[in-house]
Every structure is written in C-alpha cells, then in structure tokens.
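Quick illustration for those who missed Monday's session on complexes.
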Amino acid sequence: MALVTTKEMFKKAYDGGYAIGAFNVNNMEIVQGITEAAQEMRSPVILQVSAGARKYAKHIYLMKLVEAAAADTDIPIALHLDHGEDYEICKSCIDGGFTSVMIDGSKHSFEDNIALTKRVVEYAHSKGVTVEGELGKLAGIEDNINVKAEDASYTNPDEVEEFVRKTGVDSLAIAIGTSHGAFKFKPGQKPMLRFDILAEIEKRLPNYPIVLHGSSSVNKEYVEIIQKYNGALDDAIGIPEEMLRRAAKSAVCKINIDSDLRLAMTAGIRQDLTVNPSHFDPRQYLRLGRDNVRTLVKHKIENVLGSAGKA
Ligand code: G3H
Ligand code: 13P
Ligand code: ZN
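Prediction with glyceraldehyde-3-phosphate bound:
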C-alpha cells in the first residue's frame, strides 16, 4: 500500500476512541519489527524520523526502507518528521517524500511559534502533507538537547484555539507531564499526568487530534533483561500504561514511542551477545533485537493504543 498522510488516520482514531502509535525508526530492523507487528495486528501506524535519525542513516535510506515496508504490507503507514526545528528541515522532508511533518516551535515565543508553524503549514498543504505543531515544553532529552524538569511547562489551554486557528496546523502536541527519555520521574515520585489540562484543551478544540510525545512506559521486562546482562539503567521510570490507555480513548490520536523501542532492541542484543559470546554475525544479535521490537509494538497496539483491527 502507498504511504498515507495522517489526516484519515486521525479522523478514524478520534471517532473510534483509539490512538495511532508513532514509532521512531533509525535502521532496517526497527522498521521491520514495527511494521511486521502492525501488519499482524491489522493496525495503522506512523513511522517517524528525527533529525538525528536522518543524520545517522541518511534521508534516502530511511525513505527507501519505509517505502519497502509500505510495499510489503497492506496497512496505512505514514512517514513523519519528528521534531522538525525549522522551516528548512520540514521543506526538505516534504520535498523528499514524507507524508507528514512536525514543526516544533515550542522553544519560541507564542507569536514566533505561530509565524513559523503557519509558514510550514502553507508549504506542506500545497504539497498534500499534514503538519503537527507543539505548544508547551516537555522535559527530557531529545536530539541531545536536555530540557530540565524545572524548565518544562504545561500547555496553556487558553492558547490552543488561537494557535490552531492562526496556523491551520492539522494536529497539536501538548505537554501534560510526559517527557522524553527513559527517566521520566524521579525515584519515589508518583507518575502523574495532567488529565485536567487535557480535558480543558479538548473543550477548546472539539473534533481535533491531540498528540502526546514522551510516552514510553519503560517496560520492566526489558529493563530487567538489560540489567541482567550488565546494562546500567537504575531509576528508569516511564508513563504507566493505564494512563496511556486513558489518553488513547480521549482526543489523543497519536502517541509517540521511541525509548521503549531502544530498550527492546538493546535487551535483545545484550542478551544474545552475553548468552552466546562466540556470536559475531550481526544477523544473530540483531534478529533477537528485531523480535523484541515486534513483540513490544504488538503489545502497545493491543494493550495501550487500541488500534488493532483498524487498518
Ligand atoms: O523525541 C525524540 C526522539 O526520541 C528522537 O530521539 O533525536 O535522539 O533520535 P533522537
Ligand atoms: P519517549 O522518549 O518517551 O519514547 O518519547 C519519544 C518521542 O516523543 C519522540 O518524539
Ligand atoms: Zn517527542
């Protein structure tokens, strides 16, 4: 099936009370693990590429890998730029075949964020590409930029309507307490999301798709495998799955997951190389990593996102 935009996906997800998983991809095994899981579960899926991933693998390799995944399956797949920081990277991805881009103007003032997002929307829409914007600031690490918890800020519900109206953006990423990376809460701190802010935003933006970044759950089983095979991951804490299930039933139509994939992949590689010290063929240790990614994504689709059978 050809790549699709997020438009139809989000409309169906909003009406159906489920969310689409947006998974970060960096190499072939990750693309295969995710899309094989989505195909098996008959779920639509978003594959997203960060600036760092583009630098690591090159745009053309990721583009061709995702095109191969689309040709090898018959489910809706969108290819999305994650955290585009300026107009130029968004334009480059639009011109290079992506079906969706994020312009992350959250570090700018409200007015500058509007101006930048509007400019990207105008270009993207002229090419039939959908755009995600962001209001509010998540804590955590993304592309080596570390936003400290005290510098993070929740989305202000009073700003969302004006932002969407003035920019024409197709979906909005909000900050309600999720954060990037595998260390989302301090040890002893109770994980908490501001569902009251989400409810206020939903009231102000009826029938409008909301996006949650930083939504890995840091599943215990992979953390334990990594620790068992000499990985240091003390104090890794994610968003509890019941909170994400609740969000998926609301106006949240896209849930971003990257750290969980990293943990699943790394658990497989560490396990294989530790159990079989003589292995030196990458196909041996990457196979287990890819199997873990497939298992993880199936679990998310079935138990968190609710998108199984919606393709
Ligand atoms: O939100 C950020 C994603 O986890 C991508 O991370 O920029 O290190 O590829 P990255
Ligand atoms: P996690 O670090 O929680 O997986 O978040 C990923 C993300 O938001 C990508 O944009
Ligand atoms: Zn993010």
